[in-house]
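batch job 7 of whatever, protein = Glycosyltransferase
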Amino acid sequence: MATHAGHEPRPLRVFFIPFFATGHMIPMVDIARLFAARGVDATVLVTPSNAALISRTIDDAAASGLPIRTLLYPFPSAEVGLPPGAENIASVPLADAPKVDAASLLTAGDHDRLLRLHHPDAVVSDTHFAWTTSIARDLRIPRITFHAIGLFPVCVLGSLIRNLPHLSVTDDVHPFIVPDLPHPVQMFRPELPDFLRSENTAIAQAMSALNEAEAGSLGVVVNSFAEIESAYADCYYKFDNMRTWFVGPVALADGGEKASRGAAADAKAVANRELCMRWLDKQRERSVVYACFGSWCHFSAAQLRELALGLEAAGHPFLWVVRDDGEEWMPEGFEEKLGEKGLVVRGWAPQVAVLGHDAVGGFVTHCGWNSVLEGVSSGLPMVTWPLSTEQFINEKLVVEVLGTAVRAWEGFRSTEEGEKEVVKAGDVAAAVEKVMGGGEEGEKRRVTAREFGEKAKAAVKVGGSSYEGLSRLIGEIRDWPKKINGCDAATA
């Protein structure tokens, strides 16, 4: 490694390249901040509109003395038919999400240019950006892959792709077993991600390219912790020969700025943050149900109405975060009738801070990986309501493996928008009661959830499993030049 005058080694320089989705961007930035807290010079490559989503987090970290910054590159909106500023899956209509994927393929040139210009010591890039493996190889630096999901869903998806067990059933009502896993996992065909339900060969080819690029990387950095997924690290290595480093839950290691995590630096975000925390401060300990379905969920108006009525009928104070895109679904006079018994927040809410508040006793979630992990980290029991992608798989971790959650209902469920059935208010209320009350079984679930929450907090502390995982990864990056030079000498 290069040295400054006086033979002091210069700090490692690592570039981080997140995908254009809020659920990918926030944990990647958190990981960059963890690197910076260890003295690594961290640079996040990001497009202009996405930079606004992380600017507060980056600016606060830099102001505290951490060596972290952003480096901008253009987003090809016009080339894919998106309006200026539409640079994130969460900011476009559901029908336009494929355009964001198409745009990502057009960013390879900018990634290549910036990596060659600045020549960092390593690059941590989202799995979507397969080309960074070959760029890193040319630059003789390691590429570390980042998935926005944990190793449990990675291994389940790997088994589904490798073994195709869903082809063994002929209908949507009979389950099948996913083989090659440390725990028994049973699924139904409608719960599968779109790409496994489709015969689209282009999707299969794209997945193959991503897997090939990942195989050429140093390994995978994981936003999770060994105490819930170590068996799946072993499984991943056994079947894919992939090395992994647990560094999470990264939401717990953000220097105390939980209330600003993931917020744009605007007045509405500040107002929402203050609104949520002020309301929670008035509530009794462990009395509140928090309901949030991520930045990309889409419910029908009928489902939103049933959800509203179900939360009300459950009889517990609730804080519910909804998309800020119209209120035609809201039952007439709903909020006025609630008064202080419920709070509906439009747009963004400080989820990590809310989940960590003493007033919150349960979490209704769509089972995006970040939300699942944040719920586990907060020691809360959950009501699971998966909607799309790998969310039905994530649900199985907390319901069947960890035992900290219950399903919103046991009826027909699907990742396909057109197949979804409306979950009635009574079912919503019954599920909420299982996590907030539920007798002896409910108390057992709450105790188990608290235990996993303590394990999560211990993992990121000095000497914890994830703290040491990050230490090992940084050490490997630091030793990379010696490894490469040793290989060159051996083949000379």
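notes: The radius of gyration is 22 Å.
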